[in-house]
Design a protein that fits this description.
Structural class: alpha+beta
CATH class: Alpha Beta
Largest sheet: 7 strands, mixed
Order of helices and strands: HEEHEEHHEHEHEEHEHEEHEHH
Strand content: 15-25%
Helix content: 40-55%
CATH architecture: 2-Layer Sandwich
CATH superfamily: Bira Bifunctional Protein, Domain 2
Number of strands: 12
Length: 329
């Protein structure tokens, strides 16, 4: 007796289409990643989203970094450079764990004595879990380059009348293993962080939206700006994300890397309102809680966009792009 096949309803069709799209995206991401690895631009480590970078790759990153510096030369920004780890207490105060617990990375270390050390060695020898005596340290991995600067500035007292701008650049970590090379677990973020009144932050963000478009146009990359939201966690995450979009707090500059259908956010333009000002109690000159915002440049993502759209051989890139990155050679 032949089996009767029931027609798929609309929901089943949609689920099937999404599943197929996910498979195609993974194939596309794997293909581009493999091309980058075969060309020696990325160096695999055996962990998805964790790569070494070649000299050529780093030269592009540094060229983009210098282009950002030139574009922000008029910002009178205070340069702060932090390691890719931050004070765990400041991290807890930031409320990152309320919104993104799944992305956070903590640093643990061995805290036992001789007996525990012998047990650790025995576990290693037997191929068993050796993490039992690892304890949390006072540091966590930095989730965003701007996070360490807020408590530092807050301790200085009220902001000057013109507010303050900070230039930060750091490796960041997010536990998000993926075959997509544009979704790395360890990546660099360059930011200009603005602190001051709401009007100062809004004007800063609008200025950098225009400058961000100018930067990627100089690099001859296809792009567009779109309203966005952060990937908030849990049942309440959609409500927070919808609120963020409704208030137009976050915009992203998108460039196709993995696919045309799902472009990648390479720059972001964010208005945090008084979130960090309230947490660390830093104020404007007139005593009001300070507002903050930032423009973030995804250094690896923008570099990957260059290789995606201009090819894997930098010697063949357009002359104007090479000039913008490295000057006359």
């Amino acid at each position: 007796m032949s089996e009767t096949k029931l027609p798929l309803d609309d929901a089943q069709h949609a689920d099937s289409a999404r599943a197929l799209a996910d498979v195609l995206e993974r194939v596309s991401a794997r293909t581009f990643r493999d091309e980058l690895i075969d060309a020696g631009l990325l160096i695999p480590t055996g962990v998805d989203g964790l790569y070494g970078r070649s000299e050529v790759f780093e030269s592009v990153v540094e060229g983009i970094n210098q282009l950002v510096t030139r574009m922000g030369a008029d910002q009178n920004a205070e340069v702060m450079r932090f390691p890719p780890a931050m004070n765990r207490a400041d991290f807890e105060d930031s409320e990152y764990l309320k919104s993104f617990p799944n992305l956070a990375g903590t640093v643990h270390s061995f805290c036992g004595g001789d007996r525990e050390h012998h047990r650790l060695l025995k576990c290693l020898e037997d191929g068993e879990d050796w993490m039992g005596d690892q304890k949390p340290t006072r540091v966590v991995l930095t989730p965003a380059a701007c996070y360490p600067c807020y408590p530092v500035v807050a301790k200085r007292g009220p902001l000057p009348a013109e507010g303050r701008t900070v230039d930060v650049y750091s490796y960041c970590f997010r536990h998000e293993p993926s075959l997509d090379p544009a979704r790395m677990q360890m990546f660099r973020m360059r930011e200009y962080v603005r602190m001051g009144t709401p009007a100062q932050i809004v004007a800063f963000r609008q200025m950098w939206i225009e400058r961000g478009k100018q930067l990627v146009e100089t690099l001859a990359l296809p792009h567009w700006i779109d309203l966005a939201n952060d990937p908030f966690f849990g049942r309440g995450g959609k409500i927070v994300a919808d609120s963020q979009r409704a208030q137009e707090l976050k915009f992203e500059l998108l460039i196709p890397i993995e696919s045309e259908e799902k472009p990648t956010a390479c720059l972001s333009f964010n208005y945090h309102m008084d979130h960090f000002g309230e947490i660390w109690k830093f104020r404007t000159e007139d005593g009001e809680i300070a507002h903050t915002g930032c423009v973030g440049f995804g250094m690896e993502r923008t570099t990957l966009a260059m290789f995606r759209h201009h090819g894997l051989d930098v010697a063949q890139w357009p002359a104007s792009v090479r000039e913008a990155l490295w000057g006359a050679r």
